[in-house]
User: Fold this.
Amino acid sequence: MDYLRVADLGVDGLRSALDLSTRAKEHPSEFANALTGREVGLFYMKPSTRTRVSTEVAVSQLGGRPMTLRNEEVGLGKREAPADVARTLDRYLDILALRVFDHEHLDIIAAHADSPVINLLSDIEHPCQALADVQTMAEARPLPGSVLTFIGDGNNVCHSLMVAAAMLEVEVRVAAPEGYAPRPEYVDLASRYSRVTVTSDVAAAVDGADFVYTDVWASMGQEEEAAERRRLFEGYQVNEELFGRAGDEAIFLHCLPAHRGEEVTDGVADHARSRIFDQAENRMHSFKGILLHLTQ
Ligand code: CP
Ligand code: NVA
Assistant:
């Protein structure tokens, strides 16, 4: 089984991976030998801090061996076709995890590798992030019936998050400027599980929310659009005034890295109810949860 999209898990699989993530956090020694003798390839076409470090530590703590590869060495799609890279790495490695630009590369690699393939971020999903997100949310309050508001770009992080949250019966509201809403297929998918609203009315979207989430306005690979996006997303900053419209116990979430002063102010990122570094920590526990779910 692969984990390229949140929906790959199904509701039972998502609950199982979340449960394993919680157990891995609470009782790490329980799984100290879960990956003994297994080689895990971790491949990057884009920069990373959290994913790079949390996945290596997670694999090591499960008794496996992480091997990080950068695209400068591999040349995916340039030096060698993705299908051939997949067939080759599959002969050496037991699990492949990749961060790519084009999600289609992941589909090709998964089709040509017998080993489980994991998406470490693509242009349309960031499913490992979403598992850490729902783990962090579940630590704050029971999820069914709670309200999550995502503000900003309807991007990879938004897609995975809205599906994961909806699958766990969270109401999802997305506030995005026109032209930057999440893809309709993701809105439809999430709507199968829970109530989902997409609007450009930021204040209405945040009113009474339990969770307020944002991500950068220009993702990796969109740096040239940064100035234009700063203009278009101007009213979408999560600042103290906007966060104040959320519920009295609402928590703030961000996948990081944050562009402080753009999509979020210091006052919200460092707020007493910000959980952004718990999220970052949970990337490690939830990656264990995914590995355990895919290999048990
Ligand atoms: N949240 C996240 O994926 O961070 P990195 O890009 O630093 O891995
Ligand atoms: N949307 C961001 C997330 C980074 C973790 C990006 O793709 O760059």
Observations:
- The pocket of phosphoric acid mono(formamide)ester (ligand 1) is lined by residues 48-51, 121, 129, 255-257 (CB under 6 Å).
- The beta strands are 39-44, 65-70, 95-99, 117-119, 147-151, 171-175, 196-199, 211-214, 251-254.
